[in-house]
Structures are given as C-alpha cells and as structure tokens.
Amino acid sequence: MKIIGVGCAPGLMTEQAICALSAASVVYGSGRSIEIARPYIPSGCTVKTIDDYKRLHELPENAVVLSTGDPMLAGLGYLTGEVVPGISSLQIAAARLHVPLSRIAVVVAHGTGHKIAIRETFDELSRKKIVFLLTDPKFNVGELYTRLTGVEGPVRVVICEDLGYPCERLRDGTLDSPPVPDSSLYSMMIGNF
After folding, report:
1. What's the whole-number average pLDDT of the chain?
2. What is the tens place of the pLDDT at every residue in 21-33?
3. Does 150 have pLDDT greater than 90?
4. Total-model pTM
C-alpha cells in the first residue's frame, strides 16, 4: 500500500507524489483528495471514495490511498505502507506568516478531542510556543478564546482559511479582538509572532 499526500489544495502535489500516483491501478481517497489529485490519476485507474475510515486496513496491498495535505499531519500516515509526504496546511500557514517551523507546536482538534486540543493549546502557549491548531468545522473558537484569556503576554490569532485555494484568506486578530472563521476549511496560528 502507498499513502500519498496530495497537498492541502490543488497545485501543491509534489513531483514525488505525482510520480507515485502515475503507477496506481486502484486509488482510494476522500472526495477532496481525489479532486486535488484528479489531474494525475492515470486513465483506466479505479477510483473509490473512502466511506469507512475504520476499514482502511482491509484495502488491497496494491492500493494507493490519498491523504489531504501531508499524511503525517493528522492524516493517514498511520496506515502500513510507504508514505509519500505532501505539502501540509502547516507548511503553507508558516510560510504565509513567516513563522519558523521550529517555533511551532502542532495541536490537532480535527475529529474528536476538541476539549483536549483547547487544553493543549493553552499549555503550549504557556510554554511560549506558537501553536498551529488544526481544526474541523465543528470546532468552537469561542470556547477556545474563553479558555485562553489566562495566557500571559501578547497573543496574536490568525485564522487561515482555504489555504492554497484562490479564495485563501488570513484573518488576523488578538484575544481581545479575535477573528472568527467564515469557511469550514480553516486552521489557526496562535502565539507571540
């Protein structure tokens, strides 16, 4: 099995990912990952949308599994097989905001674990790290902002919407005047930067 990172938006697949995909006979992925990779999926290749992520371990050995962004950032990198990295939303956000990756702590609130992610964000900010918070559409930014009121020092909050897409937007603010997302596809950069 190969797990291929398709990047966080169209046009962000690496040459290595495109090459690995060109030999595929059967491809599995979310609707979004398939759309990103579609220009590079070989003709005659069987393409299947993943309906049940709990059954991915049952896929055939020759399967190519597409992972949005990079498989190792809250993606499908946990699957057994070769992992081909992709360009993640973390990399794009850090580049747009000129934040060195070495200063960033990654917190994942994607899926379940929103309360844990809020606590981890507070803890990392208390350690003076900059937090890249990977969210999902159900994440409650209001609850996050309420919890972060006890963080010392200046805290900048940037909501990064639709990174890599033509409609990309960065919403900048502070804990005193925090930004609110308009898109369901967003992440956050939080800290003193």
Report:
1. 96
2. 999 999 999 999 9
3. no
4. 0.93
Apex CA 3: angle with CA 105 and CA 48, to 5°? 120
Domains plus CATH for the chain?
2-87 (3.40.1010.10), 90-191 (3.30.950.10)
Distance of CA 169 to the CA centre of its chain: 16
- Give the tokens for residue 40: 């590079």
Task: Give Cα separations from 104 to 13, 94, 161, 178 (angstroms).
Answer: 23, 9, 19, 20
- The stretch 94-114 carries a mean pLDDT of 94
* One-character DSSP codes across 89-134: HHHHHHHHHT--GGGEEEEE-SSS-HHHHHHHHHHHHHTTPEEEEE
Rounded Cα–Cα distance for residues 151 and 142 (Å): 15
**Cβ-contact 155, 148 below 8 angstroms:** yes
Cβ(93)–Cβ(189) under 8 Å? yes
Nearest 5 degrees, angle CA 51-CA 53-CA 58?
A: 100
CB 132 within 8 A of CB 191: no
For residues 53 and 73, is the Cβ–Cβ distance under 8 A? no
